[in-house]
Design goal:
The protein is α+β, with helices and mostly antiparallel strands. The protein contains ten helices and eight strands. The strands form two sheets. It has a six-stranded antiparallel sheet with strand order 5-4-3-8-7-6. A two-stranded antiparallel sheet has the order 1-2. The N and C termini lie far apart (40 Å).
Length: 284
Amino acid sequence: MPAMAEMGESRPGLTTDWKGPASNFTKEDFSNDRQFATTLARGLEILHCFTPRDNQLGNAELAARTGMAKATISRFTYTLVRLGYLRINRVSGKYQIGSAVLSMGYPLLASISLRQLARPFMKGLADHVKGSVSLGMRDRLNMVYIESSRAEASMTFPPDVGLSFPIAGTAMGRAFLAGCSHEERTVLVNEIRAKSPEVWKTFQPHIEESLECFNRHGFSISYGDARPNIHAVGVPLRRTADGEILVFNCGVSSFLLNEGQLKGDIGPRLVTMVRSVESMLGLY
C-alpha cells in the first residue's frame, strides 16, 4: 500500500480551477516602449482567451475577458476569421480557434529535434514506472507540453502536446525555475506574484519545498498540484545553444506509488535519463 507520506498532503489542484494560460499582457508593461505594437498584441490576446475548456467564445465573452470594447472586439474577430486564425461555429454562432493557429505551431515543434531524440528514453522510463514522461518549455507564466510518452499499462494519461499549466503549480514549472539563473528566477517569481496572485498564494510553500528538493536531489516535486492523484518529478535540461531551458517531467498515479518511491527511485531515474539525453546532445 502506498504510504501517506508519499501520497502527500491534500492540495488544491489546477485541473478543475484553472481555465488555461493567461495572456499576462497589460498596457503598463509596455507603456514606455515605442516599438511595441499594441494593436497586434491586443489581437493576439484574443487568441489566448481560448482554452480546452472554453473553446467557443462570443464577442461579449471576449470583451469581458480582455477589457476591450465590443466594437473593437468585433473588428478583431472579423479580421482573425478572414485570416483563418478563428472560425465561426455554425451551431453556436461563436468563435473557435482556426487551422491557421495550428499551422503556425508546427514549425516550432518540427525545429525541436530533441523531441525525436528523447522519445526512446522517455518511453523506457514511462514503461518502467508505469506512468508518463513529458517534455515542456516555458510559455509566458506557464509550461507548455511539446512531447509526451505513456506506458502501455499506465493509469495516467499524459497531457496532449500544446496543453499548458502554470509554472508555479507543476513539477515541470518548478524545475524550470530551478534551471534559471538567480536573476532570472527573481524576475519570473516577481512576475508570477504580481500577475497571478492567487496562484502564487496557493503554491508558494510548495515552490520553496520543491526548490529545496532540487538543491538536495537534482529534481523538483509536485504532489497532485496540477492533476489530482498524479505525483510528479521534474528535471531541467542544461541550456541549449539558443539559451532555451527545456524540462522533462515524470508523472505517476499516487495509487501506484510505494513509500519513498517518488524521491528515492523515480526522481533519480529521471535525473539519469536527462543526463543521458544531455550526453547525446553534447550538453556539458
